[in-house]
Write the structure tokens for this entry.
Amino acid sequence: YGAGTVQAFARPLLKKGIVLMSAWGANAVPVAQYTLSQSLLSLKCYYQNLLRHNSPENRGRQKKLDAPGIFIEPVALLGCGMIGTMVAELLRGLNVPVWVFDKYITDERLSQLGAKRVSLEEAFSGALVVSNHLANLPSTQQMLKGHHFASMRENATFINTGRGATLDEKAMIEVLQKRLDICALLDVTDPEPPSPTSPMYAMTNVFLTPHIAGSMGDETARMADYAMDEFKRWSKGEPMKYRVTEEMLESMA
């Protein structure tokens, strides 16, 4: 499957013994790069400074909001599968500590990534940047509640490139309408796109993008390359890198 998630069709195929691979590893690359770019901007409070600097009352004046910058300040990743792992590795190379909320990741893997395990509450209340990579599963739907957003630090940023269904969108909106210092960068929503009547369109601290984090344009060629390379490995009887199993479906996006 030269694309991303296989959740909608994988199980019947696997039950019949059909070998299934997904190019989700290729699709993870641009999502990780997108997340890295937004995390770095957010560590400099880019969006808060953008809103402040361009406001009518500050026009023509240098009203800079202090930010910790890209060094030492941790970024919290919710979910550390293929995408989260790539983001963690990219951030580690920039001396940005990584916090991880993921019940599936082992302590050994966390150690390899140089990351710290935290609870969901610690991720939201402690990190200036919280990036959501939770898979959309029955156990994760609306996992991110209003009180999580209410606990965020001053001038914190929430990034969602996972799935909109994993958060209580209505509760998040209510919090962000009161906490104008918090910014939400939402590349996915539930539904997608949001309803035409959604208040998010009028909220200055919510930035909506049309699902652009994943593969687009030339990036889609990478997914085809992964699929063809995987077929070559299978045809030669070599171990496959991106084979999907029933067990994996319980936790993967």
The CA atoms of residues 87 and 186 lie 17 Å apart. The mean pLDDT is 95. The two ends are 14 Å apart (CA to CA). The longest strand covers residues 75-78.
